[in-house]
Write a structure and sequence with these properties.
The chain is built from 5 helices and 5 strands; from the N terminus they run E-H-E-H-E-E-H-H-E-H. It is an alpha/beta fold.
């Protein structure tokens, strides 16, 4: 199943050379056996090679263009610990907050892994070839 997926990960434009090197090292360490491509333009990832699904890391992410999507968030452990004590909501994705239920999958903090993205997106993908861009 690993070989059936390609992950295209946009890098923040604000990363300096050392941070980009660190990100590449993390991808190489934790993404062994996965097809992962780091790109510099986040906007290009939503139309690149007619993706069949997208993780959405911000509200209004690429999932709103009728692609199946999974909402993903990971922040520093300290930020997460503070947020959990201050913010009391059942969901973090805007679509789920508005719906009042889990309309789309959310992978938060340690649940945000490549394996979990594959597990959540796989059943959402339509059969057949990807749609044209």
């Amino acid at each position: 199943m690993k070989g059936d997926y390609q992950f295209v990960v946009p890098q923040a434009a604000t990363l300096d050379a050392a941070q980009r090197t660190e990100l590449l090292a993390l991808v190489q360490e934790h993404g062994k056996g996965l097809a992962i491509k780091l790109v510099n333009d986040a906007r290009a990832t939503s139309s690149m090679s007619a993706p069949r699904s997208s993780p959405a890391a911000r509200h209004g992410g690429s999932g709103l263009d009728r692609q199946p999507f999974v909402v993903v968030y990971r922040v520093s452990p300290l930020t997460f610990a503070i947020a959990k004590r201050v913010v009391k909501v059942d969901h973090v994705a805007m679509v789920n907050l508005i719906a009042g239920k889990r309309a789309v999958p959310e992978l938060i903090q340690n649940d945000f892994t490549a394996a979990n993205i594959v597990q959540q997106i796989g059943p959402l993908l339509p059969d057949g070839a990807p749609a044209s861009p």
